[in-house]
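Tutorial, part two.
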Amino acid sequence: EITQSLAADHNLRVDLPGFERQRQKHAVVSRGPTEAAAVFATGPLDVLKKSYHHGSEFLGYQTTEADGLVIGILEQQHLSESASASDGGPPIILILDRTPFYGEAGGQVGDTGMIRGEGFAFRVEATKKDNDFTLHVGRVVEGTVRLNAQARAEVDAERREAIRRAHSATHVLHHALHLHLGTHAQQAGSKVEPDRLRFDFANPEAVGRERLRAIEETVNRRILRGEPITWSTMPIDEARALGAMALFGEKYPEVVRVVTMGEFSRELCGGTHLDNVGRVGLFKIVGEESVSAGTRRITALTGEAALDHVRQEEDMLAEVAAALKVAPGLIGERVAALLEEVKALKRQAAQRRTDASPRVSADELLDAADTVGDATVVTRALDAATPDELRQFIDVLRRKSPARLAVLLASVLDGKVHLAAGLTPDLIARGLHAGQWLKEVAPIVGGGGGGRPDLAQAGGKDLAQIPAALERALEYVKAKLDE
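Running the prediction step on this input gives:
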């Protein structure tokens, strides 16, 4: 309510439905790996940790398929000896001694795929991590999986490849941001999904359209060069000595993985990557926004998703060109001409409304005004006046009577009630406020509004209550000046 009131004082409106949509979207993004946190918060795997000190061996840097042993089955956060296929119920968790599945970490989403063994098939719907254990979250879709069963783990390779494209692109984007914005544009977070990425970085202001275009072009030129991507493990001190970038505030182990792209990028990273920058295919920025003070966010697409986006834009452009009956290259020129036509038509319509409405002069309104103490109060309904015309009329009245004048005008246009209020500075000094005045009056016509102390506007929908609203307007001024 405070935000709405402050916005109204500056003639602004709060988009509450839009705010709620963005709040829910942020909540989903920020929720994180809750399955893993819930499992290990209750400690059901303490025994497993004692038996397997090194956790699950990750093989996903080299392959998307591997054989392993089922060393843990969790149903509703309890260890089980087996789990069978069912039509519903919550997902279960399988833990293997070795796996090619990448568990969600470092902003990269986890893998999906299948785990199969003798007499069972398990669909992996998400992969999480807890310390060194990989949690395959999903459902038994066939048969019964048992503890110590041999299993074949198969990652959805096509999806993994799309994730690798997006993750490798984040490193190239990081390089491009440093090149065009400066080295202060350090990574502040990321989300890497199949052919889609979200990259947060430090920057005090919005990145303009031209700079975004230059950043996108730099990334795509790096893709065209097709430089190799390599990785190696080394002590963290050695990695820092080589100039490898690390996330500020992030905790790293003594031995780290360094991902190098050509000669332009070297970062500490545990995610999965391509072996060549060229395999990203295409990079397309689709959004830039503020996350918080000093932090910006770029959303971009890679590979097939980027190509689909370009095709959709081309189709839309072709449809608009066909509707305007011009070639795609002439759309801008045609739209500009149409906007000028619209402006001219609006001016003509306003003139027709003025010509059709009774001629009411400022002098006539002042002559018919009420006197409240030493103040002149004009409350009047005008025929078919636009909100702009109401405000202009108030300005005319204040020029003619620059002291001790309060004006509240109403009109009906296109089936809606429009209200505007204005005050001279001396009445504002005596405690009147145009925005507060309208807040008292507008509800009577089924509406609301507000604005500055000297000028405010509002709207409503109950045409029959205009006389009552004007009467209330006069009563309000009388009461305020009698205080």
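The chain has five domains: 1-31, 34-155, 160-311, 326-354, 362-482. In part three we will examine how such features are distributed along the chain.
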